[in-house]
Each structure stands twice: as structure tokens, then as C-alpha cells.
Amino acid sequence: MPEMISSADFPIIIDVLDMGGGWVLDFNNQTFSDFFKEHGIEIDAPKYAVQGDSKAKRMRVFLRQTPPPLVGRVLAALYEYRAAMATTTKVSDARLTRYREIARRLDGVIPEPPPASSEVSKEYLMALAFRPEVLDQLELQLGLAEILKKRMAEAQICNANGAYLAAVILAGSVLEGLCLGCGILFPAEVHRAFDAQFKPPKVPNLPKWTLHEWVTVLESIQVLTPNVSKFGHALRELRNYVHPNAQLLSKFEPDEHTAKISFQVVVAAIDSFKSAKGVSQ
After folding, report:
1. Which of 56-60, 92-96, 181-185 is least confident?
2. What's the gap between Cα 163 and its chain centre?
3. pTM of the entire structure?
4. 143: exposed, middle or buried (C-beta count within 10 Å: 0-12, 13-18, 19+)?
5. Cα Rg for the chain, rounded, in angstroms?
6. CA nearest 137: which of 154, 128, 149?
């Protein structure tokens, strides 16, 4: 029998996912349904409503009925959603650590949070210079390098004019484009790494991978260094503030420093991709 969620796990999960009053995080009925459909689950099906129709009750039934790796992947995705939405309910670091352990035990993939202090790494990032010509050396598919160069140039303009949120979102989009563009160069290797990291029933087509999945996979095959991967995950979370509700709930307001670091994360990723060029040979 596959390992299932234990009775001791439920209080941790309920705390972290803020499952009070029938809620799960800040999902409404439609977004809750849409979230589960992304994982191939019809959470509105009658079998999940045997204890009641609220989101929290359906969630409890899903957790009790579903074996790994699917339940682990859903818990990992909900953890990421919680981080992006920055829910107002305070949960202790110990509870969050325990939640991550539960998700990993059930085959979910959650990266470790970055250390509280990374000043040396930040200094290294800020010292890097953006060289547009390096994008041409990556041998990306036709036309992609030019699009990425233009987006980086726009991000610089946004930074210079105080449009810091736009700069962060542009940087995140360039990182995602870079990951896909480089992954296409060695598809067999990234497919194997995806399967090893996430254990899905079927590896999705490359354009459907999330930025979290790309950064995790490319670090696992040493295309991205651990340091770049760490900051890449941080940029991914910031990029989620493209959704106004996420920004509203978190009261997030990017400043110049945040926008500049986001830009430099992409510069570091470009250098990392260049160093790893030829990984498929």
C-alpha cells in the first residue's frame, strides 16, 4: 500500500493552507476548481463532497483518498501558491518546515527556502554586466534571442523610470523564455530530469512547464548553478505579482533594489547557460 497522509499530518496542513471556515487559502469556488483541474483532478466531483461541499471539506477528502505522488504534487503546488499569495495568517517557521517534509515524503518537490542572509551572492549578482551579445552565443531558436534582448532593454528602461513592478515582471518573463529556449536544445536530458524530479504520470510538453519546474530541472542537471537557481526561484515568486490580487493580499510594492536584483538574476542565468552550453553533447 502506498503511504498516505497520517492523522498527525492534518493539523499542519490545515494551518499552512488556512483551512478555516470552509476556505482553502484565498481560493474562491472557481479558482479552487481551476487549480485542481491543472493537476487533472475534478475536485467538484461528488466523491469529494461526501463530508460536505465546502472547499476545506473537499480538500480533506482529497487528502485522505489520494496516494502519492499526486497528493505530494498538489501539496507542493499549494505551498507555492501560498508563498505567492502571501496569506495574512501567520504560520511559524516550524510548521512550514513540517509541511515541506510532509509534501516531500509524499513525493512533492519543494525547494528549500534561501538562507536569510545572502549578501555575498547579492554582491556577486550586482557586479555582473549584461552583455546582449551573449544571448546570440546560446544558439537559441531563430528570433528568440532578439525578443529576449528587447525585453531586457525594456526592463532597463522601466528601472530607470521607476516602473519597478514592470521591470520585475519583464525579468521573470526573460528567465522563463531562456529556460525553455535552452531546454529545447537538449530535450531528452531535461525530460529525464523532469521525470526524476516530479515523477508525473506523463512529462508535459516543454512549453507547458512552469518556471518553478524549469529552474528545478535545470539546476538538477547543472545547467543552472545552485546560487542562480536560488535567486531564480525568488524571481519566480516576485513574477507572480503580475496578478493584482496577489499584490493586494501581500501588500507588495517593489522598489529599485528589488527590480535591479531581478534584472541581475537574469544576467547570472545567461552566464550560467553559456557556461553549460554543450551539455547535450
Report:
1. 92-96
2. 23
3. 0.60
4. exposed
5. 20
6. 149
